[in-house]
Design goal:
Blueprint: H1 10-22, H2 27-34, H3 38-45, H4 53-63, H5 67-72, H6 84-123
Amino acid sequence: MSGDKELNFKSEAARLVKFRKKYQISQVDLAELLGTKQPYISRVEKGESPLMFHHLRILRNKYKFNINWYCTGQGTMISGEEDKSTLVADITTVKKDYEDLSKQYDELKKIVYKLVRDVYDKGE
């Protein structure tokens, strides 16, 4: 395996630093919270080691830390912190789509009624 790339966790490390700074938590305090030592947190934040899953669970339980965000960068740092402007845009889009579909439905209904009338008129 000497030819394989060495695993690094730089993206996850950057996200952990961002989280820690947002909540103004020192490496020592984070280590204490997670039941580990500060040098481990330092290695994690350098991208040399991943944060263990049981540590992620502690952060999730205490801060609603979004594990998916930590692992992939997708979503928000804290579960439940959706971007309200995005939600409003989504709702507006859904409303417009609903209005468009309602108009199409009404037009199709008229066409079907006309076809049914034409079939019955020809049958007489």
